Recover the amino acids of this structure.
């Protein structure tokens, strides 16, 4: 399965998911944009998402009898949703949080979440459960979605032998660690680019230009911080 992770806009999930009450996130958990969690709160939020994902996976495996959208695809979607949310949050924090200690914990959490994602992509029980799902009477979008997920499982190596799958997981875990370190090197190695001519910002959104006024020496300073540099690369390329 490709890394739903982490570096893309996210995957489109079928809007048929039915979440059991036991799988819902705690009602008292605030949206991340309305709170400033410390390290302990951050890890609690992430671990809760991982726990919800695991309960959804366990639910899939425990099904007895016929596979249905409700007892197989819905909990699968829930597991993916929770893992994606955990991955996006930790990946963001490891790049943009101003405190190095927080970024350290976010980097470790990114590795932890990725390991769970990789394990799911190689989980033969879940793969067989989705393979057994009868979607012949489902709408076209659902049929395509299930077909695509099964393809991603096979591309990840779910149909390989135990030794090969173990090797694939080890390689993917190492890749995640290397990618995290690459991102951290950028976040930790903050640099400033000085622009002498304001016309070099032509074509960028006005709000971006307004936030980058010339300093006392007449130069415009743009940092390599992710929120600052990423927008310029995306919009000014």
């Amino acid at each position: 399965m490709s890394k739903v992770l982490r570096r893309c806009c996210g995957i489109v999930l079928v809007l048929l998911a039915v979440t059991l009450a036991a799988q819902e996130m705690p009602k008292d958990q605030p949206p991340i944009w309305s709170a400033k969690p410390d390290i302990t709160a951050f890890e609690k939020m992430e671990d809760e998402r991982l726990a919800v994902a695991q309960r959804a996976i366990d639910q899939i495996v425990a099904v007895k009898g016929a596979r249905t959208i409700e007892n197989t695809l819905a909990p699968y979607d829930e597991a993916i949703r929770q893992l994606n949310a955990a991955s996006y949050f930790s990946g963001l924090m490891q790049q943009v949080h101003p405190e190095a200690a927080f970024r350290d914990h976010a980097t470790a959490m990114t590795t932890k979440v990725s390991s769970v994602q990789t394990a799911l992509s190689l989980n033969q029980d879940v793969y067989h459960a989705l393979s057994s799902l009868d979607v012949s009477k489902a709408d076209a979008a659902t049929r395509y979605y299930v077909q695509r997920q099964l393809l991603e499982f096979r591309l990840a190596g779910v149909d390989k032998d135990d030794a090969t799958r173990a090797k694939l997981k080890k390689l993917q875990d190492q890749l995640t660690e290397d990618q995290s370190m690459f991102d951290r090197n950028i976040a930790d190695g903050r640099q400033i680019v000085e622009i002498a001519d304001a016309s070099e910002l032509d074509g960028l959104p006005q709000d971006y230009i307004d936030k980058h006024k010339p300093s006392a020496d007449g130069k415009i300073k743009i940092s390599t911080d992710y929120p600052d540099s990423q927008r310029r690369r995306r919009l000014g390329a």
Observations:
- The longest strand covers residues 192-195.
- Residues 1-26 have pLDDT under 50 and may be disordered.
- The chain has two domains: 21-188, 192-236.
- The beta strands are 192-195, 220-223.
